[in-house]
Design brief:
The complex is a heterodimer of chains A (189) and B (250).
Chain A (H helix, E strand, L loop, with lengths): L1 H6 L2 H10 L2 H22 L3 H18 L9 H20 L26 H10 L2 H12 L4 H8 L3 H30 L1
Helix pairs in contact in A: 2-3, 3-4, 3-5, 4-5, 7-9, 8-9
Chain B lengths: L1 H15 L9 H9 L8 H31 L2 H13 L3 H4 L5 H17 L4 H22 L4 H22 L2 H15 L19 H44 L1
Helix pairs in contact in B: 3-10, 4-7, 6-7, 6-8, 6-9, 7-9, 9-10
The chains are: A mainly alpha (189), B mainly alpha (250).
Chain lengths: 189, 250
């Protein structure tokens, strides 16, 4: 394993995968599966479903590899495929209604909150707690760094919907954080 | 506001973007199962072909061997060809004894009247007829290896002519009828010709050899089937003719 890691460069892996060499494919998988699985988990709570998406994502990566033109980072290219795959699955499941009309009466957003001591797992839980539409837009914009125009294109919604969903997502998150902290303070006295 | 939002987003991004989760061990196997097989796929078909060829060859060889054994036990060609040659010659008494008793009677019946009438011209006809009946019956020898019965029947035939002679003397018509029947019987000839099993020089290459042997086996089986079918036909016809002759007698 150590030998392989030092031996393979990114271009060598890509060439190997293009030839359909199993070892190169496995190496690519082992290098990125953890990151991609985490991405899938951000969009889909269910671990099994997330794993399916990741596997499908890798299949797409291997299929589309001939189309990859060494512009931009290889990892970024692969991530986009995995994200797209996640969105496709969400759309298939129809749980994702982008126009969430249910109003969360949490738009106060003024409640004080502190981010400093929050663990990654807690943040993940918070994101998972969001409604699917909010969560998807928040993931795409805040974490993946897509623009509202791209999100609107990807999800088939308008830019303004994307913006409003993002705002609601943020407010919901802030409110939840504040609520948690209030609870903690009470417990601590 | 925009600033705080950016910070807020950044805080999440910093932590969540770097996050890693290990998928289950099975995930790679599932992915591998879906990937097209190239490296391994190249050899698997070749191995499969080789295995099937070997299997085919061994089975074919085994069948061929067992066939050889059964052929030696049942000499199809050797039993039949001599009898055909005999048809021309007058080796009647040697061939007659091999007949089963039921047919013996008819032969005896036909022979004796002729001796009484003393028609020299009819005698050869009978002989040829008898031999042809023998030809028909020869296959029965195949089914039951009858080397002993031949001797026993010999004795029986020598005895019968004397006993039955006077009874049949009375009617000449019966004799004539019988001759006609015998002529009918004459029409049945079974000739099973085969090259036997000659060891032809094996063609070069495994596949050619296997094909050769498979062809041989197929040919042999066909011949055997053909022979049995002919025998069956002959037997049926014989029974029919026997029945009709009895009816005519009555």
């Amino acid at each position: 394993m150590l030998f392989r890691k030092t031996f393979y460069t990114e271009s060598e892996i890509i060439k190997g995968c293009l030839k359909g060499e199993r070892k190169a494919q496995q190496y690519l998988y082992e290098s990125y599966s953890k990151k991609f699985f985490a991405i899938c988990l951000r969009y889909v709570k269910d671990r099994d479903l997330a794993e399916d998406i990741m596997i499908e994502g890798f299949m797409k990566i291997f299929e589309k590899l001939p189309q990859y033109e060494a512009k931009g980072s290889f990892e970024g290219w692969m991530k986009r495929i995995v994200v797209t795959q996640s969105l496709l699955t969400l759309r298939k499941n129809r749980n994702l209604s982008m126009e969430v009309n249910v109003e969360f009466h949490l738009e106060k957003a003024d409640s004080p909150y502190e981010l400093n001591h929050l663990e990654t797992a807690e943040l993940m839980d918070l994101v998972h707690g969001l409604p699917v539409g909010y969560r998807t837009v928040f993931n795409l914009y805040a974490i993946e760094g897509y623009s509202h125009a791209e999100i609107a294109d990807l999800l088939g919604i308008t830019e303004s919907t994307s913006k409003s969903q993002l705002n609601r997502a943020r407010n919901t998150l802030k409110q939840k954080i504040a609520d948690q902290q209030i609870k903690e303070r009470r417990i601590n006295g | 506001m925009a600033n705080t939002d950016k910070n807020f987003d950044h805080y999440f991004k910093e932590r969540l973007a770097k996050q890693e989760e290990k998928p289950s061990q099975l995930a790679w196997e599932r992915l591998e199962g879906q990937l097209p097989k190239k490296e391994k796929g190249f050899w698997i078909p070749l191995i499969g072909i080789a295995a099937t060829l070997i299997l085919f060859f061994t089975v074919g060889y085994a069948v061929w061997q067992t066939n050889l054994d059964s052929e030696t036990n049942i000499p199809l060609t050797s039993a039949l060809t001599p009898s055909q040659e005999d048809a021309g010659s007058e080796n009647l008494e040697e061939t007659n004894p091999s007949n089963p008793k039921t047919i013996e009677e008819t032969v005896a019946v036909t022979e004796e009247p002729k001796k009484d009438t003393t028609n020299p011209g009819q005698a050869p006809l009978k002989k040829s007829a008898a031999t042809k009946q023998k030809i028909i019956e020869a296959p029965k020898e195949l089914l039951a290896e009858a080397s002993r019965p031949e001797e026993r029947v010999d004795e029986a035939t020598f005895e019968t002519p004397e006993v039955i002679l006077p009874e049949l003397d009375v009617t000449e018509a019966i004799a004539q009828n019988n001759i006609e029947e015998e002529k009918e019987v004459m029409t049945y000839r079974i000739t099973i010709k085969s090259n036997g099993i000659k060891e032809e020089p094996e063609k070069q290459g495994l596949i050619a050899g296997i094909e050769n042997k498979v062809d041989k086996i197929g040919g042999l089986l066909n011949k055997v089937e053909q022979g049995f079918a002919d025998l069956q036909d002959a037997k049926d016809n014989l029974f029919v003719s026997n029945n009709t002759s009895k009816k005519e007698r009555k």
